[in-house]
Amino acid sequence: MSLLVIGSVAFDSIETPSAVREQVLGGSAVYFSYTASYFTPVWLSGVVGEDFPQEHVRLLQSRGIDTAGLQVVPGAKTFYWRGRYRPNMNDRDTLDLQMNVMGQYDPILPEKYRSCKFLFLANGSPQTHLRILEQCPGASLVVADTMDHYIRNEPEDLRKLLKKIDGLVINDGEARLLSGEENLVQAGQAVRAMGPRFVVVKKGEHGALFFSQFETYVLPAFPTPQVVDPTGAGDSFAGGMMGYLARQGDFQPKTLKEALAYGTLAASFTVEDFSLDRLKRLTLEELDQRMVEYKRMLSF
Amino acid sequence: MSLLVIGSVAFDSIETPSAVREQVLGGSAVYFSYTASYFTPVWLSGVVGEDFPQEHVRLLQSRGIDTAGLQVVPGAKTFYWRGRYRPNMNDRDTLDLQMNVMGQYDPILPEKYRSCKFLFLANGSPQTHLRILEQCPGASLVVADTMDHYIRNEPEDLRKLLKKIDGLVINDGEARLLSGEENLVQAGQAVRAMGPRFVVVKKGEHGALFFSQFETYVLPAFPTPQVVDPTGAGDSFAGGMMGYLARQGDFQPKTLKEALAYGTLAASFTVEDFSLDRLKRLTLEELDQRMVEYKRMLSF
Q1: Which of A35, A36, B43, B71 is most solvent-facing, going by the fewest CB within 10 Å?
Q2: Do residues A272 and A290 touch, judged by C-beta distance below 8 A?
Q3: Taking an 8 Å Cβ-Cβ cutoff, which residues of chain A contact chain B?
Q4: What is the H or E stretch that residue B152 is in?
Q5: In the predicted structure, residue A1 carries a pLDDT above the cut 90
Q6: DSSP bridge partners of B47
Q7: How far apart are CA B150 and CA B51, in angstroms?
Q8: Half-sphere exposure of residue A7, counting CA atoms within 13 Å on the CB side?
Q9: Do residues B219 and A223 touch, judged by C-beta distance below 8 A?
Q10: Hey, what's the torsion of the CAs at B145, B148, B153, B157, to 10 degrees?
Q11: For B126-157, what is each residue's pLDDT tens digit?
């Protein structure tokens, strides 16, 4: 089934306790589409400046990602983020953020994209997300991400959005902020009651919680000893999850759980190197092999 | 198989964001023996002052726990701890700590206890633990806990102890402190290399990591929406784990994993009320029912 993602395409500068990488390829739509491409063709919608190298576009296209919806704004610069990870590699501080072309981004989707069946709305304002939804009337599964910034500053549009989407993927801190509940199980259930049929709460190195009307469960992260750069882990999780769902063509409870597991493993590879470097070397066989290990790990 | 625990028997005063409980029954040996008693008879070794009520002793005995090794020191007071949980219910601050009778506690085990096959050394100094080991030459499985205090202040005795035990159960912060590694997978593997055949790293609400020479895995905590008082969760985990192992009478990899799962669930009940209040109402049927749910949660 067709899978569309709308999100950021970015330059990231990453500082970890042991290394620094300047101006590497990043952005939610990039990580998402790259991991989703292991399962299904992906349509990408995003915006970059004229400083964005063609080699990055070719890298995405080499994975079968459709970049017809990647706008290039002449004379403008690409979205830029600089962050520093703390020694625990789970918390990070934003050192610099330049919205650049993302500032006025209001996607007008190519005609072809409007027929998408599976849609993921990555980081962006609820208002923008609502306008995208209008352009995709035939989508059978819509999942969104959101951020603390929009929870604080656009609560009304976010409430509207929550009533129109099927699933929400957010991190633990955002779930607490949005619900006002400290206990994550209560937080997840409260967010689900705001509208989405299911909610996934990402806990970084501690895995993810899933909430639907009938189920609450947790899947742990895959215990990797090699965490080099956590950037993009959450978007890779969403990409693995949505990619698998789109390939299966349904979102029954059983499929959803398998999809969460693939998302978990996609994220576990992403963090093993900077930017997309580990993903560039990743084969579907490795992903499937880790799935065998993961299932064995959880069986007793 | 016979299971012996040596640890604290205490009065706890607990402050959470929503309630306060004064001078309730607590202590590592209490939580441990109570949860282990669902699986096997337990021998308890500990010390209290003459202020310790008989009803607490009777409560333990009602679960088949042998209290022959519970010393009562005339004229002395029972170990006392007062703590306050932060809003996240995972971090806590010690507000008061009175060692009292625990200060000079150096257990001389009853003759019967010295034949124990399964031994758990709960919170106590490595030096004391080493002396207990000499009294139990026939133990076939020895597992210990330790604390940041001993990692910092008795590193040499702790190193000696680590070479003589089969398993170590510690929390995430202690694993990092002991190993000097931030990544928990690396930390657990480093601690295992110090001697024990296996290491369990407890992550509180995020579950536990297991490390042996051949296996590394993670089991998530059971997602309970009702966290009233996390005190004793770690000791209940150890009690469920060791109780199950003693009942099965072996510690093969398969049995160990099942044991970790039972420990996880024992802890999930403990946190649902103050002190032993939830455990007092717990039936083995409830525990087994939650195991069915837990296994279903992890299957896909």
Answers
A1: B71
A2: no
A3: 17, 87-89, 182-186, 189, 203, 205-207, 209, 216-221, 223-227, 254, 257-258, 261, 295, 297-300
A4: helix B148-153
A5: no
A6: B71
A7: 28
A8: 30
A9: no
A10: 20
A11: 999 999 999 999 999 999 999 999 999 999 99
- Strands in A208-212's sheet, in edge-to-edge order, are A66-73, A42-49, A3-6, A118-121, A141-145, A167-171, A198-202, A208-212, A216-219
On chain A, the residues whose CB falls within 8 A of the CB of B89 are 182-183
Q: Is the CB of B89 less than 8 angstroms away from the CB of A183? A: yes
B261-281 per-residue burial string, b: 16 or more CB within 10 A, e: under 16? bbbbbbbbbbbbbbbbbbbee
ipTM computed for the complex? 0.92
Q: How far apart are CA A123 and CA A146, in angstroms?
A: 6
Residues of B in CB contact (< 8 Å) with A are: 17, 87-89, 182-186, 189, 203, 205-207, 209, 216-221, 223-227, 254, 257-258, 261, 295, 297-300
- Report the chain B residue with the minimal C-alpha distance to residue A298: B298
The alpha carbon of A265 is separated from its chain's Cα centroid by a whole number of angstroms, namely 14
Q: Does B16 reside within a domain?
A: no
Strands B3-6 and B10-15: unpaired
| Token pair for A235 | 């978007």
Of residues B44, B34, B41, B39, the one with CA closest to residue B7: B44
Give the pLDDT of residue B169: 98
Percent of chain B clearing pLDDT 70 (strictly above): 100
According to DSSP, the β-strands at B79-85 and B92-98 are antiparallel
Residue span of the structural domain in which A91 resides: 3-297
**How would you class B129 by CB atoms within 10 Å of its CB: exposed for 0-12, middle for 13-18, buried for 19 or more?**
buried
Mapped onto helix, strand or coil, the DSSP state of residue B94 is strand
Query: Which pair of tokens denotes residue A79?
Result: 């979205």
| Average pLDDT score over chain A | 97
Cβ separation B225–A299 shorter than 8 A: no
CA B128 to each of CA A80, B6, B154: distance values in angstroms, whole numbers, following the listed order = 57, 10, 11
Q: Evaluate whether residue B20 is within a structural domain.
A: no
Please report whether residue B96 resides in a domain. Answer: no
Torsion of CA B159, B165, B171, B177, to 10 degrees: 10
H or E segment and range at residue B135: helix B126-135
Taking CA–CA distances from B187, the nearest residue in chain A reads A225
Helix H or strand E segment including B261 = helix B253-270
pLDDT over 90 percentage in chain B: 96
Terminal alpha carbon distance of chain B: 35
pLDDT value of residue B123: 87
The total number of structural domains that make up chain B: 1
Q: Which H or E run contains B34? A: helix B28-36
Q: Which domain CATH number covers B45?
A: 3.40.1190.20
Average pLDDT (B217-231) is: 96
Per-residue pLDDT reduced to its tens digit, B74-124? 999 999 999 999 998 989 999 999 999 998 898 999 999 999 999 999 988
Cα distance between residue B238 and residue B275, in whole Å:
16
Query: What is the widest separation between alpha-carbon atoms in chain A?
Result: 58
HSE of B79 in the Cβ direction (CA atoms, 13 Å)? 21
